[in-house]
Structures are given as structure tokens and as C-alpha cells.
């Protein structure tokens, strides 16, 4: 019996010690759990605060970025408006300058046209005066040719010479009866060619006739053919002679 009691007492003590150890262990676990929960709560609070701070900073940064973007957009729009205003002013100035240039060009064109008209008028007057002088000189030359032709015809009385003398006398008479106050009328080119040929009984080339009249000799080709075909002058080789005054006639007279 004594051994059983001791065994039971030993078992009870063991159970009691085990229970006490378990309680101690549970208290330690509870304390550790409480400490862990406090740490977790502190960490959670710190994390929550960190997240709140992060999101607050992010919201502040985004707000600052939005403000900066709005400010940049406003500045860009102001710059666009300023450039558009400058361009509008430049276009207006260019349009005004172009209008002034066109107006000034029109005035200069009118002045140039007026100066050109005046110059043409003065040139025309000068040419008319020169033509009148040339016609007067031509009339004097024709009169002198008439005198020379008359003297030549006195030496030679052929029908052709008589006819040519009559033509020259008639022309000279027309020149003499012309009023002194009235300007001499320009003679036809054909008559002027005949007068030049009449002044050169020794013969004259078409080039020299053109030089004498101040015209291009090629413009006289038609007239020279016509007066030769009409038998009003004679052509031998490249020389033109008055009618009846060729070199063969001169040889006969000699």
C-alpha cells in the first residue's frame, strides 16, 4: 500500500508539475502572442501611416504636376496668342506696305508714262523739224539738179532728155510755188529715189542711194525694180542712171 501511495503521490506531483509547466508555458505563449500582436499592430500602424504619407505625398506631387502642367499649358497658350498677334500685326504691316508699294509704283508708272510721252513728243517735234530741213535741202538739191539737167539737156536734145527735163522742171516749179510759211510736204520715197539718181548722171549704186536717203538699201529693192520696169531710169550692172544718161550716151556725146 505504501508503494502505491507513493506512486500516486509521485504521479500527482508529476501531473501538478506538468500542469504548472503547461500553465507557465501558456502564460509565456500568451505573453509572446500579446507582444507579437502589439508588434503587429505597431507595424500595421506604421505601415498604414507610411501608406497614408505615401499617398498624401503622391496626391501632393500629382497636384503639383497638374498645377505645373496647367501653368505650362497657360504659358503655351499665351505664347501662341502672342505669336498669332505678332503675325497678325506683321501681315497687316506687309499688306499696308504692299498697298503703298503698288500705289507708289502706279504713281511712278504714271510719271514715267508722262515723261515718256513728253520725250516722244519732243522727239517727234525734233524729227518733224529734221524732216522739214531735209525736205528743204532736197528741194534745193532738186532745183540744183534741174539747173544741171537743163545745162546737160542743152548739149543733148533727145526725146528722153526732153521728157526728163519736163519732169524735173515741173517738180522744180512745184517746189518754187510752195508758200514760204508752209512747211514742205515729205516727198514719196519713189520721187526721192528718182531725185537722187537725177543728181548722179555718172551712175549710183542702190547702197549709195539708201545712204543718201538715210534708209536701208534693201527697202528700196521694190522701188528700184518698179522704176526700171517703168523705164523711168536705166540700170547697167549695179549702177542706176537717169533716163537717157547712161555711159553709152556719154560715149556717143564725146
Account of the protein in words:
- The chain has a domain at 117-253: Winged helix-like DNA-binding domain superfamily/Winged helix DNA-binding domain (Arc Repressor Mutant, subunit A), CATH 1.10.10.10.
- A three-stranded antiparallel β-sheet has the order 1-3-2.
- Mean pLDDT is 80; it is low at 179-184 and 249-254.
- The protein is mainly alpha-helical.
- Helix 1 (2-155) packs across helix 2 (159-176).
- The protein has helices at residues 2-155, 159-176, 189-198, 206-213, 221-229, 247-253, and strands spanning 204-205, 233-236, 239-242.
- The longest helix has 154 residues, at 2-155.
- It is built from six helices and three strands.
- Helix content is 81%, strand content 4%.
Strand order of the largest sheet: 1-3-2
Looking at CATH, the homologous superfamily of the domain at 117-253 is Winged helix-like DNA-binding domain superfamily/Winged helix DNA-binding domain
Low-confidence stretches are: 179-184, 249-254
Strand content: under 5%
**Oligomer, anyone?**
single chain
Fold blueprint:
Blueprint: H1 2-155, H2 159-176, H3 189-198, E1 204-205, H4 206-213, H5 221-229, E2 233-236, E3 239-242, H6 247-253
Antiparallel strand pairs: 1-3, 2-3
Helix pairs in contact: 1-2
Amino acid at each position: 500500500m505504501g508503494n502505491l501511495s507513493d506512486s500516486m503521490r509521485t504521479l500527482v506531483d508529476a501531473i501538478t508539475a506538468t500542469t504548472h509547466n503547461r500553465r507557465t508555458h501558456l502564460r509565456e505563449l500568451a505573453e509572446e502572442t500579446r507582444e507579437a500582436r502589439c508588434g503587429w499592430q505597431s507595424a500595421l500602424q506604421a505601415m498604414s501611416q507610411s501608406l497614408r504619407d505615401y499617398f498624401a505625398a503622391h496626391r501632393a506631387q500629382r497636384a503639383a504636376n497638374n498645377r505645373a502642367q496647367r501653368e505650362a499649358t497657360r504659358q503655351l497658350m499665351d505664347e501662341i496668342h502672342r505669336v498669332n498677334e505678332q503675325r497678325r500685326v506683321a501681315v497687316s504691316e506687309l499688306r499696308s506696305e504692299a498697298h503703298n508699294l503698288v500705289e507708289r509704283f502706279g504713281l511712278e508708272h504714271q510719271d514715267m508714262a508722262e515723261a515718256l510721252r513728253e520725250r516722244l513728243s519732243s522727239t517727234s517735234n525734233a524729227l518733224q523739224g529734221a524732216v522739214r530741213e531735209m525736205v528743204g535741202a532736197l528741194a534745193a538739191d532738186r532745183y540744183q539738179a534741174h539747173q544741171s539737167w537743163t545745162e546737160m539737156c542743152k548739149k543733148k536734145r533727145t526725146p528722153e532728155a526732153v521728157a526728163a527735163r519736163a519732169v524735173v522742171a515741173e517738180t522744180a516749179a512745184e517746189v518754187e510755188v510752195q508758200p514760204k510759211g508752209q512747211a514742205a510736204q515729205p516727198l514719196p520715197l519713189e520721187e526721192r529715189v528718182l531725185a537722187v539718181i537725177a543728181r548722179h548722171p555718172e551712175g549710183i549704186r542702190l547702197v549709195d542711194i539708201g545712204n543718201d536717203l538715210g534708209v536701208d538699201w534693201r527697202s528700196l529693192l521694190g522701188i528700184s525694180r518698179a522704176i526700171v520696169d517703168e523705164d523711168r531710169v536705166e540700170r547697167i550692172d549695179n549702177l542706176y542712171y537717169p533716163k537717157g544718161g547712161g555711159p553709152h550716151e556719154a560715149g556717143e556725146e564725146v
